[in-house]
Structures are given as C-alpha cells and as structure tokens.
Design the sequence.
C-alpha cells in the first residue's frame, strides 16, 4: 500500500548532525550563552523553534532567539556546509526508490535555504518530487506539521506513506501523523532511541543492500 516515501535529510542522507550542533553552540556563545555540546546534540532533529526553548529557555520569536537563529544559519552555511558529505549510497537509494515507483518528498526541520544546500550535498535535488521544511509549517518536529505538509506534497494519505529518518523526533512526528517509520543509525542515535520504527538500518547503504526484504520491496 506504500505510495510515498517521506525523507528526513540531516543525519539521514547527509552527515550533518554534528555540524548543526557545533553551529548552534557557536551561535549561543556569540550571544554570551554557554551550553554543553552534547545537550544540543541530543536535540538535533528538532527545528530551532523547539531546540532553543529545550536547551536555553529562549523562544525563537523573541529578539534574542531570532538573533541566535539567524547567527546559527550564518555559521552553518559559512563554516560547516562546505565540509559536509552525503552518507554512502544516499543518492543510489533514492534512485532505487524512485525506480520502484515511489513518490519521494523531503520532510525536514531544516529551513528552506538550508534544505536546498543539503539536497545538493546529497545529489538529491533532482530526485525528489516535493519538499516540506520548517518554513512551510507553524511547528517543527517532533510536532507532526511537517509530516502533514509532506503528505500534501505527495498527494497521499498517511497509511500510504513511510517516513525514513534518523532521530526520535522523526519517529514521534511521523507516528503522530499516522505514518510508519524506518530509521537509520547513522544520525548517531541508538536502537533504543529509535524505538517505534518498523525497521532500523545502519544507513542508506544497508537499506539499499536489503531493499528486497524491506517494506520498500515494491510500490503499490
């Protein structure tokens, strides 16, 4: 019954979770706020509207929050983006899913400008049929708004889609929207953290190797 695959990007197709954590830490530091890197790292996968209150009790729509969010984007784009690499076989996995007839839609907490850059890193911009980012919704993951937006982009119902992600926030958001989850360990989370996924793989390369025995064995 699967018609669409909803795809997280950071930590799923692109090895970028640590880079985001470092960029957030530097942005907070520029505002005079010292936060432990691991505390931030555990929140990567949320959008800034969720991360800032979680780690620093700062709202994104405040003057300080807006300044920190803007600075984080600048640091990420200038310092970290040029260093990023896709996970092995990320583009080949997408090509295989596309060849099997699935509609592919990004469902990410990244902002639209970041998403475009990340898709280039993943060599995936031409493979997707649509995208939903944090700019398209009121709330980012783990709220389900981005998943609902991605389903609209895919023009399908929740029961006909599967989400591929790498964080507990992907799983929580997709589950709340009634979408099944496949999870990757390459984002840095443990199998315990990824509880709720119907299957867990090391990364795109392992799912590609095992596609014939996966939920994606064939499209509907």
Sequence:
């Amino acid at each position: 019954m699967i018609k669409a695959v909803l795809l997280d990007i950071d930590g799923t197709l692109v090895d970028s979770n640590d880079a985001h954590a470092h960029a957030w830490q530097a942005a907070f530091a520029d505002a005079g706020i010292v936060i432990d890197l691991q505390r931030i790292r555990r929140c990567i996968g949320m959008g800034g509207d969720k991360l800032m209150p979680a780690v620093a009790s700062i709202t994104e729509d405040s003057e300080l929050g807006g300044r920190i969010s803007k600075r984080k984007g600048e640091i990420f784009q200038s310092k970290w983006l040029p260093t990023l690499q896709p996970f092995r076989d990320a583009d080949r996995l997408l090509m295989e899913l596309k060849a099997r007839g699935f509609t592919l839609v990004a469902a990410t907490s990244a902002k639209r400008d970041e998403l475009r850059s990340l898709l280039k890193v993943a060599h995936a911009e031409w493979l997707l049929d649509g995208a939903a980012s944090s700019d398209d919704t009121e709330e980012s993951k783990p709220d389900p708004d981005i998943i609902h937006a991605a389903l609209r982009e895919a023009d399908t119902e929740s029961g006909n889609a599967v989400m591929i992600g790498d964080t507990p926030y992907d799983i929580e958001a997709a589950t709340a929207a009634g979408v099944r989850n496949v999870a990757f360990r390459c984002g840095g989370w443990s199998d315990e953290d990824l509880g709720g996924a119907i299957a867990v793989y090391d990364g795109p390369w392992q799912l590609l190797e095992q596609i014939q025995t996966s939920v994606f064995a064939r499209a509907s």
Q: What stands out?
A: The first helix runs from residue 17 to 30.
